[in-house]
# Entry
Amino acid sequence: MVQIANRRRHLHPLPVRIMHWLNAVTIFIMITSGWKIYNDEVLFGWLHFPEALTLGKWAQHGLQWHFFGMWILVINGLCYLTYGLVSGRFRRMLLPIRLSDLIATVKDTLHLKLSHDDPTKYNAIQKLLYVGVISVGILIVISGLAIWKPIQFSELVALFGSFQNARLVHFFCMAAIVAFVTVHVALALLVPQTLVSMFTGGPVVDDQRSTELKHKTAH
Ligand code: HEM
# Structure
């Protein structure tokens, strides 16, 4: 018989909260310094970011901020991925994402039913957005490495086809993260209870609940 130890912990355990807020500050640094660097050599002639929204006195200074943030983003991101995989948090909170749940949640949202019936679970849209932004986060780091050291990481450049393609991928990942953060912060403000939980940890939940249920139904 498999003995499953019941572990009770906050909905958002302390490591998740620390990593989440550190990531939020770092993303802010990365985006604003990235806009400074972009303005120095634009990809699209029609697009310049307002100087007031950029970080760094000039492009080189923006680059220094970008590299400073890069180390925090990568180290913090690796810690979050390791924690999510090892603790089972990804499996418990972010998976599975079923098409039927997704359609039902989209219908509810279109009917403006934004109620958080069970605040201890993410709905299908949240799961998709979180898994999506984590994947985009990985892609933005990989494309960033290709642009940073195109000779040392020439295989990565080859993966994207060319240096310019890697730049484009890096840019569109940034755009996706900005879109995500806009929706994410708006939703957090619409359902303030979730925002408070991301600071306090939220309700105490049973870690093994879903695993146990699966185990029981298998017999
Ligand atoms: C000021 C900015 C931000 C605020 C106010 C905020 C707020 C929140 C809140 C309230 C939750 C919990 C949602 C819930 O329980 O329903 C959450 C989770 C999450 N946020 Fe943010 N967030 C911010 C920035 C970011 C950024 C920049 C990213 C990534 C680019 C991000 C990625 C995530 C992810 C992946 C989760 C799920 C974490 C997990 O459960 O393991 N957030 N955020």
